């Protein structure tokens, strides 16, 4: 295993500036070296790490490998896995990802490196793809409003429970969970409900009657975990008669053949779209889903794409119902969801486009046919079935020998599910063949292959038909988008056309403060889709997953080391879920040590909005700590709060460096004060890109921190997910981190979750494990010393922009004249003088070919810029030139040379159609609208729509693909 040296060092390709370019950047901030910059930027009172020498013999645990060596090492780990044919089911099924989607979406940086579509004008492609996903879910479930995706099926069920509790208007009443749900769904939902004091009862649908007390609602299984297809009309009516809402958990592929939830009275439908072309990924990332009735649309968690129009009256897409965003509603938010599974929702959407309704139905019929063949064969071999009404999962009775049958199957290369001592569950899927069925039958019946093959399959297709009264009769996926692109040429062009409407990192810097968008190296994705990694079931036996567990253990250990903590949980699938998980660990620790009275979390006014929402979701009350004039925490106010509420304080949630983009010198004083009061310290890891190799949150006094692998550790953002939000903790909190759901293999010493005993927060033991090889590879190529250089280069780039833009938009907060990794540009004086808003600047930047910085956060009327370490000096200078040019345009308004409403600023962004219209009647030239800087003509990006009317979209909410002519009928 050779170290990276000279030209093959990944560090040199990851950093945007080195050598003379770096010297230019440093000179602009008055430094001669990166270490000299650190001495200026970081308060001397903080426990800064000493610079580390490069290790003599780099390896996967210390980093420093070349890209080729890192990929080779990862391949060796993958080879330690033992892939079997997966027929476990339990909500996870092998699927065939069409090659065109693998190449043109999952392997395409235009899709993988785009950001959450908060700037809708440059996100029309990903918004349309996510609208397609919403349409698929709405059509299949028979409910009109769907989210863009949720983290997985288990979290979708949990969110449904919370939604029903929010919508319930009567006195507190229990929520019923169908005992037929997958066990992990019951466990995750029960834990979330318990934290909020929501009563849960688990019982079978047969036990749900109209008699009894009031209900908040019920979650019913469309098909049970043991495979039974249920008639839910009776239980649903019983729940409604007792005042409850009805949620149905359903398999989207089964819904092509079986009655949709909306037709049996469901208010909410949830599930996972994983089997619509998304790999198993050892448990995730997978697109969970939720759809609801019109009456519940404003209670939805997460994101919803809606249809509106732009300034020219053309149809345009945008995120709808944004008043529910966490940074506005904080602890009153409907959820703390930030990152979801946008990229995987796009895969599922294109899978539906690729196959169309006829193709999906044919796949479902094939899956059911294989299950019928299995059931008929089992019966012919003398075995009994637990039930005969099934879609894809057959429960075979093998009295007293279920374990032996499962072991025989494993020896033959197949994973089945041990339901209990007498029953084995077998789930067929899109990849199942007749030969697979024959082999499984030999294991179940303990007979020879010849005996299994001798089973006559002739009448199988009609042996176990779906119940006639439960067969679907309604149509779905009738929109033209699901019928136009069946040929590969058509689909390739459609995917390309949508990608071309967007701005992603493959085209331009995305200078978003608070959401690091940095280089995602191609080598990181070299193996993540390989069957040895992506083809493993999350409930596969431990003997088959040694490579995965070694990989995850190495990643967890490195993350804990880099952050100054003892243990790391990789289960949370997003930063916001990491926040929730960390706070639930704090809650578990407090309750275990008799400190239940500590029910208050302190959240600074400048904190990420998800912080307060996560604290509320973990069952805590929230009190805001004021912000001082310099943007730091108001220590005097903190002291007053601790004096008043000290015995109630469970924790404080800090972001460091602060959300205002500075290293606050008093952070250790703050952590000491909270510890002295008996509270825990939660340090939000969203800004770890400014710390890694330089400072460790655990050394600052942190007890728990969540990380964002899709930020600091270079997992692509995917248009709004996937993300991974690991939680790192000090030893005393480790026992309360989430264990795997029941049925997961028992952790072994050396496993990253060994000794954890908290309730699971995801349906799979390691959450979105499928994307962790990307961060593993990133860290395998970088030593601690390299990561320090990465961090300091990020600080240098932010300082460079802050100084270069001071004459245009001054930086609001600094420490001794310096910023950390991001800078908040203050436009408020200009807005007061001219009326030009931060939004005007954000939209005008699109005409210059840039994604906007973070708009009006953490301070209204500002832009927060984070250039990251990956951007070249030429790109930084291009951004500076754009901002200076926009400032000159603002000055024209200030001088009265042009009215604001008619200015290039207020009428931005400009589409190609707008600047090529025959009659140009605007008071500025076409060239200034479209080509404001020299040299833009050769590769100009034109947004597909002009400025979007968000308010109109909320008043005319449309969350599925509009039928041709439907938009015009609404009036534009």
TrEMBL record:
Its EC number is 1.4.4.2. Residues 735-759 are annotated as: Disordered. Belongs to the GcvP family. Transmembrane segments: none annotated. It catalyses: N(6)-[(R)-lipoyl]-L-lysyl-[glycine-cleavage complex H protein] + glycine + H(+) = N(6)-[(R)-S(8)-aminomethyldihydrolipoyl]-L-lysyl-[glycine-cleavage complex H protein] + CO2. InterPro entries: GcvP, GDC-P_C, GDC-P_N, GDC_P, PyrdxlP-dep_Trfase, PyrdxlP-dep_Trfase_major, PyrdxlP-dep_Trfase_small. It is an enzyme of class 1 (oxidoreductase). The glycine cleavage system catalyzes the degradation of glycine. The P protein binds the alpha-amino group of glycine through its pyridoxal phosphate cofactor; CO(2) is released and the remaining methylamine moiety is then transferred to the lipoamide cofactor of the H protein. The glycine cleavage system is composed of four proteins: P, T, L and H. One of its GO terms (biological process) is glycine decarboxylation via glycine cleavage system. Residues 12-443, 619-738 form the Glycine cleavage system P-protein N-terminal domain. Keywords: Oxidoreductase, Pyridoxal phosphate. The lineage of its organism: Bacteria, Bacillati, Actinomycetota, Actinomycetes, Actinomycetales. It holds the Pfam family GcvP2_C. Its cofactor is pyridoxal 5'-phosphate. SUPFAM superfamilies: PLP-dependent transferases. The modification N6-(pyridoxal phosphate)lysine is found at residue 711. Signal peptide: none annotated. The keyword Oxidoreductase applies. Residues 791-910 form the Glycine dehydrogenase C-terminal domain. GO terms for molecular function: glycine binding; glycine dehydrogenase (decarboxylating) activity; pyridoxal phosphate binding. It comes from Actinomyces respiraculi. It comes from the Bacteria. This is glycine dehydrogenase (aminomethyl-transferring). One of its GO terms (cellular component) is glycine cleavage complex.
